[in-house]
Design brief:
- The complex is a heterotrimer.
- By secondary structure, chain A is an alpha+beta fold.
- Chain A is built from eight helices and 20 strands.
- In chain A, strand 16 and strand 17 form a beta hairpin.
- Chain A is elongated, with a radius of gyration of 25 Å.
- Chain B has one domain: MetI-like (MetI-like fold).
- Chain B is built from 14 helices and two strands.
- A two-stranded antiparallel ribbon of chain B has the order 1-2.
- In chain B, strand 1 and strand 2 form a beta hairpin.
- The longest helix of chain C is centred in the first third of the chain and has 18 residues, at 5-22.
- Chain C is globular, with a radius of gyration of 20 Å.
- Classes of the chains: A alpha+beta, B mainly alpha, C alpha/beta.
- Chains in contact: A-B, B-C.
- The complex binds adenosine-5'-triphosphate (ATP) and magnesium ion.
- Adenosine-5'-triphosphate (ATP) binds at residues 23-24, 27, 29, 47, 49-55, 203 of chain A.
Amino acid sequence: MAAVKDDVVLEDLLRIDGLIKVFDGSVRAVDNVSLTVAKGEIFALLGSSGCGKSTLLRMLAGFETPTAGRIYLSGKDITDLPPYQRPINMMFQSYALFPHLNVWDNVAFGLRRDGMPKDELAERVESMLKLVQLGKFAKRKPHQLSGGQQQRVALARSLAKRPKLLLLDEPLGALDKKLRESTQLELVNIIEQVGVTCVLVTHDQEEAMTMASRIAVMNEGYFLQIGTPDEIYETPNSRLVADFIGNVNIFEGEVVEDEADHVTVRCPECLHYVGHGITGTPGMAVGVALRPEKIHLSREQPDKPHNWCAGDVADIAYFGAHTTYHLTLVTGMTLKVQQPNLTRHSGQGLTWGDRIYAHWSQDAMVVLTQ
Amino acid sequence: MLARLISRFRSVFRGRNAVILVPMLWLFVLSAVPLLIVLNFSFSEMEIASVASIWKWADDALTIKINLGNYLYFGQDPLYFDTYLSSLKFAAITTLWCLALGYPFAYFMARAQAHLRPMLVMLVMLPFWTSFLLRIYAWKTLLVSNGLVNQLLMALGVIHTPLQMMNTPFSLTIGMVYAYLPFMILPLYANLVKLDVRLLEAAADLGASPWKTFWLITVPLSKRGIIAGSMLVFIPAVGEYVIPELLGGPDTLMIGRVLWDEFFSNNDWPMASAVTIVMILLILLPITIFNKYNAESKSEEQA
Amino acid sequence: MKSPFSKRLAVVLAAAVVTAGLASSAWADKEKVLNIYNWSDYIAPDTIANFEKETGIKVRYDNFDSNEILHAKLVAGQTGYDIVVPSSQWAKIQIQGGLLQKLDKSKLPNWKNLDPSLLTQLSKVDPGNQYLVDWLWGYTTVGINVDKVKAALGGMPMPDNAWELVFNPKYMAKLKSCGVSFLDSPSEILPAALHYLGKPPYSQNVADYNAAYNVLKPIRPYVTLFSSSGYINDMANGSICVALGWSGDINIARRRAIANKSGQNIEALVPKNGGLAFFDTMAIPVDAPHPENALMFINYILRPEVDASLTNTVFYANPNKASLKYVTPVVANNKTIFLSPEDQKKLVIPDAVNNDVRRVMTRLYTRFKTGV
Ligand SMILES: Nc1ncnc2c1ncn2[C@@H]1O[C@H](COP(=O)(O)OP(=O)(O)OP(=O)(O)O)[C@@H](O)[C@H]1O
Ligand SMILES: [Mg+2]
């Protein structure tokens, strides 16, 4: 969603150009990364632990100096600015609240550095505290607050200066699962209310999908794929992305037929007829990704030449809203299948060891060439 | 009745309490008892070659004769007030210099690479490996009029006649700061090394320059280290005897010398005890303030 | 009567060890051990060794450098020492306070060697000579570097009375340029000032001491060094030209200057109205663990040759009439060591002062030295 010339849809706020960070002469924590983030976007950096998310974020904040590459904010090169001169604020993973200052003074800290007049400052701090619903706690010290309250103080503090860009490093990482889910939406609400552009780091794909308008999936310092949440989920461009985002079954096979509107892929387990074209050639080795929730089960053998296979139930996991079955296929591959529990007894009476047929539609799959 | 008392006693000193009992007893024997003896002496009077007892047992009656004369004497001679004041002054000057020199020292030690830190701590403690007296004497040889410092300055042409450095407040301050600096550095270091760098980053992120960050974050958060270091320097410095005796001069009278005179020149143990008690009371004040701070900031640090 | 603080501290520490190690044990007297606590630099090199060889008694020899330290230890008790050497005026208080024990003279056959006139003088602090035996004696006086003083005074003639040199601002103002050293102790300076004033040096009257302070105050700016031991070297090498010091020390400085060929001509003066005598006396603490051995040692010291060797080493006179023929001629003929009968008669004999006076002395001395 980069800005399109002559068609001012969205204005670029942040542009990263070939950014590289090498630690200790050999660890390439961030490896030639380029990116643009539009104004008002919530952009998520998603990746497994150690892939370089924090390092990238810290370069944006100014805590790390890039080994190479430039960073532009509103078209201005800020690569060499020290952190305290960047119109960027960060909310730290551990919140990094100043333990010796109360909530009010924590929020006011940045404003005081700008020498904001007293009245305006008080007004701003009040409104920030109101925004995060902590008006009553202004006089408390951080250690007198719960984890969730601390998180909101940290948010208020990082928003108080009305930064052009807000950086969030694992903003909800320290909260328990339930609180995290409710806070995700609240956080998005607040960010949208303020209208700040936001780069968010997380290793939780659900969080990224819920909160972000676009996601960059990172691996070993570089971007695997950048796209909207549904793009990333429905059309992952590689095995790594498919694997990282949600649950997926990947069949390995080779292309037998490659047409403009469909491909056929032969795998040891079955023949796939995929309803979209790829850029490939017959004989090419590919993967076919199939999400567990897009598979149907039936006791009768389906009446079609492709997109089904037989298996034995090896495991049944009941999750309340849905049930996950693990089927062992003829080749020994395990196929994960997810079935919604639409009625109270929708388990079809399946039990361990039952022979069952899995089938899916031609739009359920994505062919992965890498 | 007795049985109840015993069981009561047992329940008080069971488990955790019993464990505390050992150091408590130790503290009592090693500091409370001597202090009580000194207190007892301070209410007494000197006879020809012994201290008169304030306790008298006669005709089945215990009479205690508390002589306040020693304490009242403080009011009669400005010597005591003046020397207490001058001791506090030199102790305060020493503490401030130690803080000014020790803080950057501790700061850079704490910011040094982790594998270098044990060695730096070692270097700070290195002087303790040689005799304290020797090290103070070494300063004497450096500072005398034909000493190394003067010779060097004269060789460089900075001065033409030797500077009078020995036996001045200058030489005393140098000696005191030198001797007490490690006691400032070590607690400060222990405190600063725990400082969360993310707080410094957060401050920078919010627009504070490194200088502002230092004053607004680092210093307040190392308050406990500053206070601990200052106490460790200030308290012994007030009663210091050896350094003023070796490096001080006529205008650096400190209470340690007065104490020595009371004890040895005047051979007046009760008066010496009274001087000591007043000194302890003077020192108790900063300790109390420290403890109050300590209790306050402890809960903060746990956050 | 000498030496700086470090020695003092070392002495205290050593003494503490001795005390801990030796504190009264029933069988101690059978031990072949003797613990002596004496002034530093106050003995001949072979004195101890010869005694040990002869008797098989192991001697532990510790030093102190002020009567105050010794007194404090005796008052605290359990020193572990068998022989201590207080100055006579301090010994007087110690006798009164019951800190010393009487000597068994039947064990001291050499007692006969003692000079009767000295015994008479000591009997003023020790009636009947029951507790004390003189070790050596000397006097507090003024020592000068003859040439430097002459030069510093310019045309001014030397005063008639040597005390004038150190107590009259007229002279002191000139002498400051070549360096003036005072003994660092109230019990040395104040009696000297009183004596200069013509008042009783060991006065029990506080008003006298205030008068003495008024003498001291104006000369304070001219005193360049307070020292009870370092001044020997400073005199010998010429960095001070006048010392209010001890006769023997000044003679040691003189000998050192001659030995080093430093060209400094040092002389102890005998003031016209007399120096302030001191008698350092051997005594046995009341709780001494080995009093028998102590008596043996005292008797040994009283041998003419042994006493003579002390005098030959440290330039202080001994109380032993019979020793004179063993004293080297240079020392024997030095009229500042063995005073002429007239000078000896003018010597001021020390006496103890009461606690109140001691306090006043300390206080005035502190004010003199520091201005506080
Ligand atoms: N200061 C540093 N010195 C050396 N190597 C570093 C430094 N900081 C990070 N690294 C390395 O760079 C790589 C990326 O680290 P980074 O902290 O950016 O990971 P991350 O994606 O944030 O991981 P996580 O999700 O666990 O926080 C890691 O291999 C890490 O060991
Ligand atoms: Mg991270």
